[in-house]
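User: I'm curious whether this sequence folds into something compact or stays loose and floppy. Could you predict its structure so I can see for myself?
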Amino acid sequence: MKNHNLNKPIANRPFENEYKFVATDSALPGDQYTSKTETQVTLEFHVKNSRLLSEEEKEAILTKLKRRINDDGFLQVSAGEYNSQTQNKHLAEKRFYNYLVEALKRRKKVFLQDILKRKLKKGSIPKRKPSGQSGKRRKKLLGQKKLYKGPIH
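Assistant: Here's the prediction. I'll summarize afterward.
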């Protein structure tokens, strides 16, 4: 059976069936309900078991997001900024999709010639005034010696 979701952009794939939320105690300072409610949320997504990602996408995610993947292979995204578990879930989902999109972006290869061309465009290199000479004095001396345009000592 062919999965038609592989052709969709990451943001349009239904990952909701493949991740789960784990609620933990919030660590917000000064909140009187901190120890009573579990508002911090961690989204857990098993990358290798996903049916919505191709093998190439899985490899890219595993290498680029390896710091966010635990030993069991779960990508973990936490959110605890709000006092509401629902708001933290939405924030964790948003971060999850952003991480996937960033991990799967193809980086454009930049060649040294392109960098040099951009830097050497006309007017991109500022003309420096030699130290120790005021602009008026330099213009006066350059007016006298038209052939030599280097610094005058």
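Summary: Residues 4-103 form a domain with the Double Stranded RNA Binding Domain fold (CATH 3.30.160.20). The chain has four helices and three strands.
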